[in-house]
Design a protein that fits this description.
GO terms for molecular function: DNA binding. The chain is mainly alpha-helical. The protein contains eleven helices and two strands; from the N terminus they run H-H-H-H-H-H-H-H-H-E-E-H-H. It binds a DNA duplex (21 and 21 nucleotides) through helix 3 and helix 6.
Length: 215
DNA sequence: AAATCGCCCAACCGCTGCAAC
DNA sequence: TGTTGCAGCGGTTGGGCGATT
């Protein structure tokens, strides 16, 4: 077993350490990670304790292969959010940011590279370079009944027509999978993604996504 | 059977953001 | 306003293990 310069244990966790950590969290709850090693009687740093709990000991963590639904969701959320693994994981019940990150690196990235290779061999693709845009908090607002376009148009008074149209195109490019022949996905929990009936609109009605996007 | 390779995933490290002072 | 400490995040590493030679 390796130790840090401060004498902290490093490396794989033992069952005894897991049990101590479980007991401690059970008694005091999550948080105050700097106190956890002391409370639990563990010779581990707070980061190590937190990581172990979040990635391995938290109840309801799913183990095993990712389902097709989960794969699809990860791809779409990654397209939307980039490498914001914790946010992506927050949308996938039972999966941790570390799980999602590892999965992406080992599976999805390979898939995308293979897809790109195939695409390059068959067609000459046009590279789209969307301009980065700034959205204000008021831009997207009513989650209950609006589409992206409606949200953006709501700001017509405060933005120039060019900016408005640019915003709409940017969002459509980002979200519209229709042109690629992608018909979207309906997840087992009933949430639909892509351009099925309701499509992205349903996805965006889900309040959390707007919070994620920090509109 | 042994050696090597490659994949997967648990764990670590460095950084940033934020709150308290 | 600057400093400090904590929490959390994403990138990276390294060990275990199965597959291949």
């Amino acid at each position: 077993m390796v130790s840090s310069p401060l004498g902290m244990r490093k490396g794989a966790w033992t069952k005894e350490e897991d049990n101590l950590l479980r007991k401690c969290i059970g008694k005091y709850g999550e948080g105050k990670w700097n106190l956890v090693p002391l409370r639990a009687g563990l010779n581990r740093c707070r980061k190590s304790c937190r990581m172990r709990w979040l990635n391995y000991l938290t109840p309801n963590i799913k183990r095993g292969d990712f389902t097709q639904d989960e794969d699809d969701l990860i791809i779409r959320l990654h397209k939307l959010l980039g490498n914001r693994w914790s946010l992506i994981a927050g949308r996938i019940p039972g999966r941790t940011a570390n799980d999602v990150k590892n999965h992406w690196k080992t599976h999805q990235q390979k898939k995308l590279v293979a897809q790109k290779d195939r695409a390059q061999k068959t067609t000459k693709s046009t590279i789209l370079k969307p301009k980065p845009l700034t959205f204000s908090k008021t831009m997207a607002c009513s989650i209950e009944s609006s589409t992206f376009e409606q949200n953006i148009r709501r700001n017509e008074n405060s933005s120039s027509p060019k900016v408005i149209e640019g915003s709409i195109k940017w969002w459509n490019n980002l979200l519209d999978t229709k042109e690629n022949g992608d018909q979207g996905t309906t997840l087992s929990n009933g949430l639909s993604l892509g351009f099925l009936e309701g499509g992205w609109e349903d996805f965006c009605r889900d309040k959390n996504i707007w919070e994620i996007l920090e509109f």
